[in-house]
Amino acid sequence: MVRLLPKTQFIFQTPKPLQSVIQCLEAQVEAPKQWRWVFNSTSALYEGSISETGFTIRRLVTNRRNSFVPNITGCFQTASGGTQVKITMQLDPWVSTFLGSWSLIWYSGCLLIWFTQAMTSDLFLVFVGLPLFMFVAFWLAFWLEVERSRADLMQMLLERIPESRQKKRFLLRFLFGSLILLSNIFVLGVFMNNRFSGGLPPWQGLPERLPAAPVKPEF
Which pTM value belongs to this model? Predict the structure, then answer.
């Protein structure tokens, strides 16, 4: 189930003993590096640390910047017939803080511009609605990353990925693409409407210069 807040918890039950679970993770996790180059050759999928009690990892993204990769923590617990792994995934706190601060500054600026009547109602709707589309897109991007990491952990610990998880990931991808398309159509439609209906913003609607006053004829 996809939750509203960017955080989720779940438990894997594997018949493997604890040492085997740790070995499976160590094969795909490398130690964190201060500097990582794009062309670094590594077979590891994640970076982080692993101990006898749990792990803290994060998916490696070397070819681009991705702020929505979740921080993953896990706790090991020996159970009858295997090992139980309790996993928590959540958005980086710095990213949450940045998004909250950015939205506060953005909407404060929108209200200031609106009160000074420096834009039309349609453009104000764009400035208010576009960040909402962006937040929903960011939310979907985070859950896409959660599903990707969850599939990786399933493959490492359980050596299988249920078909239901693959369908959910496909659905999230479809929703993400549809949202991006709808947001572009929305913005384009508002600007085209302003362009062809005469509802130009005040700074575009003013004449370049005032007409000259009529000259009174002399008799």
Answer: 0.71
